[in-house]
Amino acid sequence: MRTTALLPALLLGLALPGPASAGDSSLETRARLDLRGGSTDTYALDEGESGGGSVFGARLRLDASYAIDPALKILAQVDLTSFDLYTAMPEMEGLGWTDAHPGFGGRSLRFDPRHLYAVWTTSKGQLRVGAQSSQWGLGLVASSGDSEPIWGVARNGDLVFRALFITRPLEFLSDGQLGKELYLGVGGDLVHRDENAELFSGDRALQAVGSLIWRHRPGQQEVGIYLAYRAQKDRADTAGLRADLNVLVADAYGRWQGQLFDGLSGLAEGELALLTGHTTRLRPEASPDGVDVLALGWAAHGELKLDEAGVSAGLWAVYASGDQNTEDDQLRRMRLDPDFKPSLILFERVLADSSARNRARIADPSRTNIPQAGSQFLPTGGSVSGAFLVGPVISYDTPLAGLSVKAGLMWARATADLEDPYASFATGGTPVNLQGGKPDRELGLELDLGLRYERQLTDTLSLVALAEGGYFLPGAAFAGVDTTMDPILAGYLAGRLQWRLP
Hints:
The protein is mainly beta. The chain has helices at about 175-180, 345-365, 420-425; strands at about 25-45, 50-70, 70-85, 110-120, 125-135, 160-165, 180-195, 195-200, 205-215, 220-235, 245-260, 265-280, 290-305, 310-320, 330, 385-395, 405-415, 440-455, 460-475, 490-500.
């Protein structure tokens, strides 16, 4: 179930920015225009319904920072978006999924203010107060929506109204290196919008957050842990029930990047997240007062690079726990942040469409009298959920300045059988998948290719052009009684102009 997406809109940009110098301009502004469009082969979901098709979208992102004095800054960010590209998924009215991401319309122009917060830096630490986003580690549970994923594009971002204090706790005890490299952050959030809550639609989610991170070389050698506790009251569902959600997430992250030998550099990074708590979003017969939550997710990435040749070879492995028994008093399914994207087709399109169709069937009044409690959380929104995947990613910086190519191969397997709740109920309790076949865990194999060109056009203007394509071979999890899902091809073109305004 989607419930373990419960993942907080967390934490913490922990590096302390230096104060503005007297010679710097008080106002700094940036703008970025993103265009992206493409198409995915149509594929059958069940009798009479299919997924896939074309998408196109545009986003203009404006950033500004104003230094009132060397110790105090105001930062702001706003988006103008159009069409369906930068929602979690395109609207699929035929599938019964018309609220692709809470608070987002589909094919319309949207003004979306994201950031407006103050940063006050003193000798004791730094205080950040206001509307802001968060990023932690690889982005398994918290993604700002500003970073680039492995494949595809980040569309969402976890937004919170936050008060956060960051300090170096050992600096007061010692002037050694450790005192300068260890950061402690504590704060509290009122969640504005993430994959699990939408404040202005009636959800109320409060969080207490804390982190401790050691940064020897920021972005190169660092290791940290954070804890976050969320207490949430959901908006009323179709039956008039308002569910509670009380969860604790503990997340450990580490990264090492450096030179192994002359001409050979390496990278190793990983993140491990554990989610525990209780929720009344699900009320099975075995536990009418709700279920306990215990879910696990992790990702590991290693890479070697021949510096002079410009060739990199890496390996990704990702895991999100599944829940084979949805009728007991335990919820074990983990859903990672939707902006963590290890492929172009499987999670972003096929499983997102399939899970949305599952929800539509079980909530259809012509099929069921009263929708099962918690069924609104079935759609994954494109997230990795209940799956294990592994595969290499190889990239090459060509001799043409700014041009690089990338290829990735991913094998994926579900961590619990893929079942359709409605079809299983209609057959008298015999588990079947959305296509009416026997449930299976084999998700399939996907090949993704990318071509990227970057160029600095002027001192203040840069260009990025990107082409990405994928080919997905569905596994037995998508097989019907007498049929199998055909291979799926997808292709996307994107462009980005980014400039600093004078």
